[in-house]
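PROTOCOL LOG
Step 1. Enter all chains and additional molecules of the complex.
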Amino acid sequence: MTHAIEIRDLHKHFGKNEVLRGIDCTVETGQVVCVIGPSGSGKSTLLRCVNLLEEPTRGKVLVEGVEVTDPDVDIDAVRRRIGMVFQQFNLFPHMTALQNVMIAQQRVLKRGKKEAEKVARTNLERVGIGDKAGSYPAQLSGGQQQRVAIARALAMGPHLMLFDEPTSALDPELVGDVLAVMRKLAEEGMTMLVVTHEMGFAREVADRVLFMDGGVIVEDGSADQVIGDPQQERTRTFLKRVLHPEG
Amino acid sequence: MTDRLPPPVAAEPGGKARLSPRKKQRISRAIQYVVLVAIAVGIVLYADWGSLAENFAKPDVAGKALPELFTVALRNTIIYSVGGFIFSFVLGLVLALMRLSTVRPYRWISTLYIEIFRGLPALLIFLLITFLPLALPGFAVPGGTYGQGILGLGLVGAAYQAEVFRAGLQAVPKGQVEAARSLGMSAARAQITVIIPQAIRIVIPPTTNQFVALLKDSSLVLFLGVSGEYVELAKFGNDLASQYANATPIMVSGLTYLLVTIPLGHLSTRLEKREVRAR
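Step 2. Run joint prediction.
Step 3. Record the structure below.
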């Protein structure tokens, strides 16, 4: 059986700075995997290597059996199957929410305008903001923008979704809406790789949790194991800081 | 004047304090007004208004400028400027994209072009254009005189417009390309659909300024040796001025330029403010 994502001995250097130092892991179809760890641990870089927004220095990344690190592979075709959601939303500010969700369908999947609009409206409904279709990103709250971004990715019919700290730029009272959408996606069986600081979400939704520090995976196991009963000292220190910031 | 604040003077009760800063300022302001009025009165008294009006604002000479001032001269100025602007807009965008390209020779070519055409006086370019037929026998710039004027303005304007576009393209956040690419768009598609439309919005205010600069530079068409139906405002004013040995037509041309450039300048300022608010 092919894995949804397979990562073998992945290294990434930025100049002299070794951000990833040998990552091995797999994500199975339908799994929700949360990546946690201190800032600078390489979580986001790992995620960005999966759809090649960062070019790995060494190692292999396979998505559904296709080696994305192979220079001969059509990376645009692979990316169509990978939805990505960014910390800063990255909506296209010159387009309405509806157009944001339609544009890649039309330009990349060559869907007709009518079909693209139908799919877009369905997905905006799905994330709970069907009534904001005509609004521009600047007119939406952070939480609404992030949900448009999720709808934009979903409209492409991705096989798996990457979330790069999707709630970190949100006001605290807006985090819940976005997490609810992600929880629903997980329940529907979407394969998800999520970099997050939301321990509650990880604990409740993740099938597996990876704890990263210093460019390596320190701990890999079920949410209860890694968050509830960490085996490594580094994991324990990190969780103590995150869960009890006042010390 | 020192930039340090004077030590606070304890207010002396009884009002015997020396001049307070505010009083000093009021007196200084009054002195400035007196000087200004004195200068104005001096100008009014000593200038020879009769002679000035005779040479710079003679109504009957000004009347001779009509209607060709608008039907020929302004019309041609606008043809040269708009034509040159479109030329420079398209070439400028191409140069900016080349300048930001990952292909090194593209960057070299673009940088070379921009350095040369920004470094040379526009007048020199126009003079060179008049020699083109000598350099390339059998070659004629399409569009005749209009074509030559537009070519000159476009070549020079493109170098400046390229830098304006470069700033605009670089002002679009990196996350925009990443979002577009992660949706499966090719690099070219991402530029066309996502980056360039945003960059153009960003550069509308500076581009309006570019257009004003280009409109003023269109006066250099004079050096192409244009005549008759091809004259634009500056040449038109100059010709009439020579004909009547009177500067009034040049003043009239100048006013006509201002009629266009001042509103455009204000438009640019308004657009800039709107841009700031939209952020």
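Step 4. Note key features.
Residues 69 and 233 of chain B are 7 Å apart (CA to CA).
The two ends of chain B are 39 Å apart (CA to CA).
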